[in-house]
Backbone:
């Protein structure tokens, strides 16, 4: 680390700077789906859904880049985007990206698309790739499924100037699709198939209404025998595409209605659901429904909808829903449908049933809410009207209006919930396509159906009601089934009293008013031939006014007059509901939500051919259904992680005050294990093991492992099962567990320290609770269970990115550690900017080798002269004579990342300034620590860091303070020690001289040591009194070093002392370990981010050197650099040589080699030996007093403290000798288990060789 060491080992390096991309071949492929995404036919998307992934091909009339994305809203913000192009050399590029806003999408850290090929010709760019339905990148990728997917697309006629610089697209758009459902195809039709078109007769859409429902009557021509309708397609007039929203076709087969229907055939029709609509038309029942986005339907080969004399249906009513939100004038439409029918009858007659919520003004959706409405089908209706063997559902259409967000048709039988018949969790009002079910579903007599509709009314300022208008709402499902029955509608809506009581306002109305309103709401429609005849005469004579008028169903509520309480006296219910103030009361909305879902409903059950329709069939409530065994209540977890590389084991958790809730989702139908281990192995691990048997019963055990054998049941079962299920592919278990169970013998204490999580699973259940098969897969991963998890926020357009990557560094294969340093310059800016965060950019192939990256600010007089010359250079091995001496001016850390970290986003009130003129730096040095323990050959890396910066300045400039032990050969860890403590400190005189009077606020930190580190902590002492621990990790993992964001910021005042303690386990080493750069050497450091920024950047200490030689019995040594504890390289001229010798081989840097240069002159018995001979002689350490001497040296006596600040364009380093601090330790509060009398699930930190630790009043533990 440049800020810590200057080594004296020679090196040379040759770096290759070549990179290439192969041209991709693209053999022909047959795809199952195809769609043209734009109106110009320039963008064609083809795809084939497979079991685990989707294969996509885009064919775009462009010679630049092409983008295809998946968006929750149809917009760019938050979209998951695949972007690619083919350059002039024929190289194909493909990126998995994420759009944080309406600007160039950033490349994902996890590239989850696989390029299958691509090419470009004179006119088109073609790309083929695959992508899993569900990726592991939950932050940046969209989880695809069988719900509506809003596909967004874009293309440009020019390639990007680089992989990160995109020019603005030329064309873009969006289209909703079902990616998994079968696509509509019009098959070749035989000579037996006839067609007939039913078209509107030039209907003029009014310009003063946004919604018009128009009804017209038709007749199948020349059909005297039974036929089957086998399909249809919409026939849409191009000029009115935006206005035709849906079409519902009804069959009209009222008894004795033949002559009545016949006379209406020449009439152009009328506005539906008004007094101008003939009474007989109200008895027509739906046969099928088409809505915008649909292409048509061809029914399965074994079913058809019956028509003709024996099929009863000869007359049809077409209901057109016209939408005119912009009130366009002069819109005239003649759209409709084309039927396909045949006299070759299918096996079954088909029918349509409508389920859901009655279209009613009592369908109330409060403003500024996410809301759920439900409609129920009374089991008595299905019991009385379905055949004993039930009916088979083969397709369906979900329907709501603009607020619809998610729609589910649930199915219940005998009190047990069954899998939903249909669902769409991303419903799109403008894409309502009939879904063919993958498997037909049987509805039996007595089954209950529940239609749940989720609405997003967050942008509405007043209540929304059920009705026909686009701005009103519906909640319906149209299901096609066979064999046909007379049942065509089964719905419900809340009763008036349910609404009045549910509002919780004490509303009352008179009995007369209640009866009057209920007559309107609970309609009773009888066929009135006399009224129909009178209407026909008016039409025939031309005396019927046909001017459409708005049909606002909620105005019925104006007839409900409130009589109490006084506050609402003499107001209508409509007036009360329009009062925004009532909806600001959460008690009102929660009470109404409960009432409409659990209160009394009025049911409706309608049959074909009836001449009486009743709006009230009976009073019902929501069916009491036991939840699906294979489902759990929806829970949003705070944290999630994929534990294995295959994505088969997902762990989710939410930390709470006393316990933690876990959920495991594992791709197996056998048992699942999750454990917590002190070492990452099975021995001594605390294990939770569970499974779901074939009957659906869930088992969960608290166990412990004494070795590499089946874990045994704990005497105390300290996990609580919250639920679980198993389906065809996965086992899911949810449970809670206290942080400390007080079972000190068999359970692991969870905390904010690193936790080594172990996992396993088998593809078989245990044969008994005690007989387990050996697992099929297992692994381990370290985690912080309590710390906030890194999340990439949405970035505004002001945020820019800057990537700095290693220049194809070749790792040596003859030693295990390489530190590589390279100079970079900030992006050109004319104003002050703040760095607001960063993420690592680590090449996946080299993830095991990139151990940590430090990014330093460079401060020196005339920095342009010193550093500009190095920008184009490849860099150099750090801390060697081959590293330019100017690099030594790069000492203050700006970014510290280590393996296991995902990145950092700083608080909204703090940012790191860049630019010398703005209090930051203009030049930077990146130091990359490469680890190659297996000495692999041919490793070449270009990893680095991506910085996010903005000109929107934060409130405070931030800085980083590094504290700990000087990385030096004075850092000695004796061998064979289970717990050796290195103490180091930043004394109060240093903070007193460098911090402002009001202090600084520390908001995050990261701890760092190497392989021997087991526990690291930083104490804060003020005026001799220990304060709460600043940062700790008592289960430190070298391979999991992630920045900790503090739950609460900590103030550091002038005069505070910071003590860094690092505990090491060297029990497997036979020789001492020295401080140094190698992974096998050691460090003891902490990096803290704080504000407001000061010049203070480093405070390190080390024991006096004469104490080291005295600890091994040496009294004098000879060396011309006796006072130095680090090795400095010669200073170069400030202009530095532009050309330097880069032919030297890379060599391992070991600080302990310095001891070879120290010749012992006393005592006489050691003469002619070096300090290295004594220190690294195993016999030296046979005497336990030697290790004890080093322990005392590390934690007492006089230490050298180096206090470093940035002066004007240069670093200033002050070194002084200070005694190890003493302090009064914190009073320890008893924990939960101590209060319960447990003999101890917690442990102290004092090492065995340090007996006075537990007795002295000047030292405390972390508690």
Residues:
């Amino acid at each position: 680390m440049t800020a810590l060491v200057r080594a004296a080992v020679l090196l040379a390096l040759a770096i290759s700077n070549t990179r290439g991309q192969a041209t991709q071949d693209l053999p022909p492929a047959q795809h199952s789906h195809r769609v043209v995404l734009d109106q110009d036919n320039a963008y064609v998307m083809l795809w084939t859904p497979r079991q685990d992934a989707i294969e996509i091909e885009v064919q775009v009339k462009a010679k630049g880049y092409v983008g295809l994305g998946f968006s929750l809203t149809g917009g760019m913000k938050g979209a998951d985007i695949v972007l690619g192009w083919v350059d002039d050399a024929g190289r194909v590029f493909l990126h998995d990206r994420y759009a944080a806003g309406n600007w160039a999408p950033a490349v994902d850290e996890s590239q989850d698309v696989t390029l299958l090929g691509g090419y470009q010709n004179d006119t088109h760019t073609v790309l083929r790739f695959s992508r899993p339905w569900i990726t592991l990148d939950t932050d940046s990728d969209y989880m695809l499924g069988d719900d509506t997917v809003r596909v967004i697309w874009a293309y440009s006629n020019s390639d990007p100037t680089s992989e990160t610089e995109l020019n603005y697209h030329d064309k873009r758009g969006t289209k909703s699709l079902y990616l998994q459902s079968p696509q509509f195809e019009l098959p070749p039709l035989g000579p037996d198939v006839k067609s007939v078109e039913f078209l509107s007769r030039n209907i003029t859409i009014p310009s003063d209404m946004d919604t018009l429902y128009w009804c017209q009557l038709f007749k199948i021509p020349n059909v005297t025998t039974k036929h089957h309708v086998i399909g249809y397609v919409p026939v849409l007039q191009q000029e009115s595409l935006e206005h035709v929203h849906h079409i519902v076709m009804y069959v009209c087969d009222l008894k004795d209605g033949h002559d009545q229907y016949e006379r209406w055939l020449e009439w152009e029709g009328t506005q539906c659901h008004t007094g101008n609509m003939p009474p007989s038309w109200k008895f027509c029942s739906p046969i099928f429904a088409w809505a915008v986005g649909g292409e048509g339907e061809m029914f399965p080969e074994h079913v058809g909808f019956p028509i003709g004399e024996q099929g009863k249906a000869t007359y049809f009513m077409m209901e057109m829903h016209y939408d005119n939100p912009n009130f366009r004038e002069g819109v005239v439409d003649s759209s409709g449908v084309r039927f396909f029918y045949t006299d070759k009858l299918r096996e079954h007659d088909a029918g349509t049933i409508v389920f859901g919520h009655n279209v009613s003004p009592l369908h109330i959706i409060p403003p500024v809410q996410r809301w759920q409405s439900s409609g129920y089908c009374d089991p008595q209706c299905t019991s009385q009207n379905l055949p004993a063997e039930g009916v088979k559902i083969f397709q369906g259409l979900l329907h709501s209006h603009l607020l619809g967000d998610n729609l589910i048709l649930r199915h219940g039988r005998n009190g047990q919930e069954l899998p939903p018949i249909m669902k769409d969790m991303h419903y799109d009002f403008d894409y309502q396509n009939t879904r063919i079910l993958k498997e037909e579903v049987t509805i039996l007599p007595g089954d209950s159906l529940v239609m749940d509709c989720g609405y997003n009314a967050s942008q509405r300022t007043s209540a929304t009601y059920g009705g026909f208008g686009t701005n009103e709402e519906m909640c319906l499902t149209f299901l096609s089934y066979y064999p046909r029955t007379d049942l065509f509608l089964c719905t419900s809506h809340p009763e008036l009293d349910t609404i009045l009581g549910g509002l919780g306002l004490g509303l009352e109305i008179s009995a007369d008013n209640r009866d009057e309103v209920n007559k309107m709401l609970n309609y009773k429609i009888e066929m009135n031939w006399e009224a129909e005849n009178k209407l026909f005469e008016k039409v025939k004579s031309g005396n019927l006014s046909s001017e459409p008028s708005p049909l606002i169903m909620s105005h019925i509520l104006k007839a409900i007059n409130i009589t109490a309480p006084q506050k609402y006296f003499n107001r209508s219910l409509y007036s009360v509901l329009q009062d925004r103030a009532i909806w600001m009361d959460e008690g009102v909305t929660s009470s109404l939500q409960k009432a409409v879902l659990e209160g009394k409903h009025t049911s409706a059950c309608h049959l074909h051919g009836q001449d009486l329709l009743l709006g009230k069939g009976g009073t019902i409530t929501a069916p009491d259904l036991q939840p699906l065994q294979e489902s759990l209540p929806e829970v949003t977890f705070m944290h999630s992680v994929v534990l294995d590389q295959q994505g088969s084991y997902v762990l989710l958790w939410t930390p709470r005050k006393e316990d933690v809730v876990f959920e495991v989702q594992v791709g197996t139908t056998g048992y699942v294990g999750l454990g917590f281990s002190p070492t990452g192995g099975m021995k001594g691990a605390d294990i939770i093991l569970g499974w779901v048997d074939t009957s659906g019963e869930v088992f969960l055990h608290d166990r412990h492992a004494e070795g590499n054998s089946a874990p045994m049941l704990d005497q105390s079962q300290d996990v609580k099962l919250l639920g679980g299920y198993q389906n065809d592919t996965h086992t899911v278990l949810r449970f809670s567990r206290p942080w400390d169970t007080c079972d000190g013998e068999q359970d692991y204490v969870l905390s904010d320290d690193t936790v080594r999580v172990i996992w396993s699973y088998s593809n078989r259940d245990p044969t008994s609770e005690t007989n387990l098969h050996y697992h099929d897969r297992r692994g381990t991963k370290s985690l912080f269970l309590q710390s906030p998890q890194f999340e990439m926020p949405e970035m505004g357009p002001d945020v820019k990115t800057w990537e700095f990557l290693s220049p194809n560094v070749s790792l040596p294969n003859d030693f295990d550690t390489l530190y590589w340093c390279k100079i970079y310059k900030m992006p050109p800016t004319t104003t002050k900017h703040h760095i607001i965060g960063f993420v690592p950019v680590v090449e996946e192939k080299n993830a095991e080798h990139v151990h940590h990256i430090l990014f330093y600010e460079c401060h020196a007089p005339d920095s342009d002269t010193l550093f500009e010359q190095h920008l184009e250079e490849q860099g150099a091995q750090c801390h060697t004579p081959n590293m330019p001496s100017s690099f030594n001016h790069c000492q203050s850390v700006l970014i510290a990342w280590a393996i296991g970290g995902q990145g950092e986003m700083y608080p909204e009130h703090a940012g790191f300034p860049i630019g010398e003129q703005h209090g930051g730096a203009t030049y930077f040095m990146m130091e990359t620590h490469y680890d190659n323990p297996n000495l692999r050959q041919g490793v070449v890396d270009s990893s680095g860091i991506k910085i996010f910066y903005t000109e929107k300045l934060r409130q405070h400039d931030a800085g980083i303070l590094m504290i700990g032990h000087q990385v030096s050969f004075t850092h000695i860890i004796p061998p064979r020690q289970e717990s050796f403590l290195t103490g180091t400190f930043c004394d109060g005189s240093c903070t007193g001289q460098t911090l402002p009077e009001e202090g600084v606020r520390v908001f995050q930190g990261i701890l760092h040591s190497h392989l021997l580190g087991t526990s690291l902590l930083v104490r804060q002492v003020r005026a001799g009194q220990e304060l709460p621990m600043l940062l700790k990790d008592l289960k430190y993992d070298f391979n999991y070093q992630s920045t900790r964001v503090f739950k609460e910021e900590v103030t550091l005042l002038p005069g505070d002392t910071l003590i860094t303690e690092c505990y090491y386990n060297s029990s497997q080493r036979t020789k001492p370990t020295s401080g140094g750069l190698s992974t096998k050497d050691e460090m003891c450091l902490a990096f803290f981010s704080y504000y407001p920024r000061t010049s203070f950047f480093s405070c390190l200490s080390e024991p006096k050197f004469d104490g080291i030689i005295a600890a091994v019995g040496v009294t004098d040594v000879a060396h011309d650099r006796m006072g130095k504890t680090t090795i400095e390289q010669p200073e170069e001229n400030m202009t530095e040589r532009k050309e330097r010798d880069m032919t030297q081989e890379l060599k391992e840097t070991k600080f302990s080699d310095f001891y070879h240069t120290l010749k012992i002159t006393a005592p006489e018995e050691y003469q002619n030996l070096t300090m290295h001979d004594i220190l690294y002689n195993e016999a030296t350490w046979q005497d336990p007093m030697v290790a004890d001497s080093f322990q005392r040296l590390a934690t007492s006596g006089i230490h050298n403290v180096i206090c470093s600040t940035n002066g004007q364009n240069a670093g200033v380093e002050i070194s002084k000798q200070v005694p190890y601090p003493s302090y009064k330790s914190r009073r320890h509060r008893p924990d939960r288990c101590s209060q319960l009398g447990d003999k101890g699930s917690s442990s102290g930190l004092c090492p065995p060789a340090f007996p006075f630790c537990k007795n002295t009043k000047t030292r405390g533990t972390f508690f």
Remarks:
- The CA atoms of residues 88 and 120 lie 9 Å apart.
- Confidence is low (pLDDT under 50) at residues 1-24, 1122-1143, 1238-1263.
- The two ends are 32 Å apart (CA to CA).
- The first strand starts at residue 33 and ends at 36.
